[in-house]
Amino acid sequence: MPILVKDYTWQQTEKEIFISVPLKGVAAGASNVMCTESYIKANFTPFLFEVFLFAPIDVDRSITKIGNGIILFTLYKQEPSIWDSLSIANADKETMKRLRENAITRVQEKAKEDAQSKAARKRENEKYSLEIMMKIDEEERKRIENLKEEERRKASEDLEKFKDQQRLEEQREQKRKEEEKQRNALNKSMFSDSPKSSIQAQKHKIEKVVPPTRKCGSIKIQFTPRVFPTALRESRMAEEEEWLQKQAEARRAINTDNLDLQDLKEEEKNPEWLKDKGNKLFAAGDYLAAVNALNLAIRLNDKMPTLYLNRSACHLKLRNLHKTIEDASKALELLTPPVPDNAAARLKAYVRRGTAFCELELYVEGLQDYEAALKIEPSNINVKSDAEKIRRIIQGTSPDPE
């Protein structure tokens, strides 16, 4: 039984209450304090200090300081007044028990609300980070596309300049050949025995020689469809593949439920393969990736209890306590009827759900799950020891678990 501390001192003003409780040689870090509107408790083994307050206080503004061998409470009254005493006078055991239970319930509810709020903030932060990353990747993709378009345009211009230069060279060559041919014909006629009129006719014939007109046409080229429209010789294949892979990973990380099953590889369509992959990721400490693998496996087959059981272990590691309870409950629902073959799985489900309840300070519910696990395997020393610790916490004979 704890030793009640009675040698405390207190003072008050119309708006504030000051309580000083001696630690009696106990280290400051070994004390556990709980404060509600009408109840204050400080547990520093083997001593216990508790007060059922005369009137309600403002918990959000009140302050507790531990140090220099004392616990100092600064409490703010909800309504300014001078109290006749610090605690309720002549309170019977039933009233104290009811007030104590109400205080514990209020603290558990607040802890649950804080945990839910923290989890919601974490999800919002993760979603915001992923959106920023996707935006950066999209901008990078546009930059790469612009570079490729610029390179394509420059290559097209260089090709047109090359073609124009080739046409000019061909025209010059053709003209040179024609002139050479005319000179040869003229020289030949000058040294021949033909009359003068024949020479003039030959000259007239040479002057009328006109080179043939070049034929023009177009060549149709068909390319295989690609994500990026540049030609293969201009492609930055490594950058494209890296961008596509990042997009796929981002879609999976944001929401596995919206993932298109047609994008999956053949082995990713096998729930057993995904379960083994989740086990490997869990063993490597990558619990979030393990949850994603198990989410996809559950989409493919939602009747396998081991998938929910394994995902509950991942959520327990990630401190997603409410999700741990949901997955363990779903696994127990599928593990029916209870037979010796599924006894080990049911034992794990009860222990994990009981652990999550205790982390939420719902010790009564946690003890019920541990006792259900002991019915499956009464000789399990670890489960029996943990159940006894929870029972002592509920009875108020042990500090909160480490």
Automatic annotation (TrEMBL):
- The TPR repeats lie at 347-380
**Descriptive protein name:** Dynein axonemal assembly factor 4
Organism taxonomic ancestry: Eukaryota, Metazoa, Chordata, Craniata, Vertebrata
UniProt key word ATP-binding: no
Identify the CDD domains for this entry: p23_DYX1C1_like
Gene Ontology terms: biological process:
determination of left/right symmetry; epithelial cilium movement involved in extracellular fluid movement; heart development; inner dynein arm assembly; nervous system development; outer dynein arm assembly
Superkingdom as given in the UniProt entry: Eukaryota
Major localization class: other
* Disordered: annotated segments: 151-207
* UniProt keyword Repeat, yes or no: yes
Where's it found, cell-wise?
A: Cell projection, Neuron projection; Dynein axonemal particle; Nucleus
Sorted alphabetically, the Gene Ontology cellular component annotations on this record are: dynein axonemal particle; extracellular region; neuron projection; nucleus
Residues in domain CS? Answer: 3-87
Task: Provide the alphabetized UniProt keywords.
Answer: Cell projection, Cytoplasm, Neurogenesis, Nucleus, Repeat, TPR repeat
Q: Which organism is it from?
A: Engystomops pustulosus
Give one Pfam family, short name only: CS
User: Where along the chain is composition biased (Polar residues)?
Assistant: 184-201
Q: Which InterPro entries match?
A: CS_dom (IPR007052), CS_DYX1C1 (IPR037894), Dynein_assembly_factor_4 (IPR052004), HSP20-like_chaperone (IPR008978), TPR-like_helical_dom_sf (IPR011990), TPR_rpt (IPR019734)
Amino acid composition bias (Basic and acidic residues), ranges on this chain: 151-183
Q: Which GO terms describe its molecular function?
A: nuclear estrogen receptor binding
